[in-house]
Amino acid sequence: MGHNHSHHQHDSAGSNRTRLAWAFGITASILVAEIIGALLTNSLALLVDAAHMLTDAMGLLLALTAAHLILRKPTTKRTWGFRRAEVLSATLQSSLLLAVGIYAGIDAIRRLFEPPEVQAAGLLLFGVIGLVGNLISMWIISAGKHENLNMRAAFLEVLNDALGSVAVIIAALVIEFTGWTRADSVAALLISALIIPRAVRLLGETTHILLESTPRGLDLIQVRAHLEEQPGVLAVHDLHASQIASNLPVLSAHVVAEDAMFDAQSAGALLRDLQRCVADHFEVSIEHSTFQIEPESHHSSEHHAQC
């Protein structure tokens, strides 16, 4: 069972690495095209989108690196392997996105008051190129976007790029048919508004994991109450739950049990019941749990020592 689960995770990580490699190649190509386009058209929206693409290309490269590291086996020095690499990657990606979004918003406001000349035809061409490339990348990544934070961050980046390309296309059409060049700065503001909330939300999720907070959706009060309802259990203390990476919550607890439970058969059955309880009963399934089972006399002396 555990071997099959591990084998599935390995195959999934390998597939994600392939998807990310394709998405990175497409994004890097669009980045080069948009930089050239921004220089030719003098468009802030296209330049901001190119900066966004640069950040996303770096983010996808980080995600690709993390996907590669996840495949490495655990060692005695790194007992979880590099599973947390995907969280670190997503944190860096969201931080870069936030910085780009803030910069884009500030520069767009400045250019609203000093609108430059923008070549609408070139802006439209490069906007369409960007949109087509981003849609292809989204299609490639979408199959693995729910598997971990690393893939989710990569998908959000490409989605933001696609929305940014739509804003660029709309700005080009407005300038072409009305001559209102401030549409370029408005598009840049829109791209900024798309970037910042998603970056903040993702940064909050990754920080939650890095601070080893209780996994979202898991109520430790309910966990404690349910564990204490198990036959032979008197009390539960030192209950801790955190998350190593996406889909990898862990839990540990000291369980005070009746003295009658301390024979080989009863203790083993109690341990199985406790592990099955946290794996099956709650919305967040915890497959990695550690329980220290203690007799009541040990708990009393331990409590006294702590006081």
Q: Which features would summarize this protein structure in a list?
A:
Alpha-Beta Plaits; 2 domains; 3-stranded mixed β-sheet; 70% helix; Alpha-lytic protease prodomain-like; mainly alpha; 9 helices; 307 residues
What do these coordinates show?
By secondary structure, this protein is mainly alpha-helical. The protein has two domains: 2-210, Cation efflux protein transmembrane domain (Alpha-lytic protease prodomain-like); 220-306, Cation efflux protein, cytoplasmic domain (Alpha-Beta Plaits, 2-Layer Sandwich). Helix content is 70%, strand content 10%. It is built from nine helices and three strands; from the N terminus they run αααααααββαβα. Strands 1-2-3 form a three-stranded mixed β-sheet. Helix 1 packs antiparallel against helix 4, helix 2 (44-70) packs antiparallel against helix 3 (85-113) and helix 3 (85-113) runs parallel beside helix 5. It is elongated. Residues 1-11 and 303-307 have low confidence and may be disordered.
How are the SSEs ordered, and which strands pair?
Blueprint: H1 2-41, H2 44-70, H3 85-113, H4 120-142, H5 149-178, H6 182-210, H7 220-228, E1 233-245, E2 248-257, H8 264-280, E3 288-295, H9 296-306
Parallel strand pairs: 2-3
Antiparallel strand pairs: 1-2
Q: In short, what is this structure?
A:
The chain has nine helices and three strands; from the N terminus they run H-H-H-H-H-H-H-E-E-H-E-H. It has 307 residues and is mainly α. The chain folds into two domains: 2-210, Up-down Bundle (Alpha-lytic protease prodomain-like), CATH 1.20.1510; 220-306, 2-Layer Sandwich (Alpha-Beta Plaits), CATH 3.30.70.
